[in-house]
Amino acid sequence: MKRAxxxxxxxxxxxxxxxxxxxxxxxxxxxxxxYGRKAGGMIGRGALNVVTSFVDxxxxxxxxxxxxxxxxxxxxxxxRGLGCGVLRLGSGATDLVTFWVPGFNGFPVSDSYTDCxxxxxxxxxxLPPGYSQPSSTWEVxxxxxxxxxxxxxxxxxxxxSK
Length: 162
Hints:
Blueprint: H1 2-15, H2 25-30, H3 35-51, H4 55-67, H5 70-98
Helix pairs in contact: 3-5, 4-5
């Protein structure tokens, strides 16, 4: 009977929406300019990131397996998940060690466990003067270099004679 109760509780815990899957007040507190609020937020965010760093491995492996070929998707997801897990663990450890440093708000990773490389939710107005957000898209040329500068008339070939 005890095993059935534990199994049911574990199933409910795994199926229900996890608390850490959304942005928590702790994330906002860690990015605050007030020292006391920032220190407490960094401790909370750091502990949360350290404890839940394994979630990235599971989520990335499942998502990549669903979206790609089974074996290749699994390996890709496992690699991506391990990278994100290490990044989240490092960010959390940094928060826990440096929470006391005034003016330093750590290296936040994305709140989402589906893409840890998405960055924090900082907007362009949060940046210091003179800085701008990096472009999130690559400009991919659709034609060969110099194609736009070619003349519209056909080029006559030169012939050489002796």
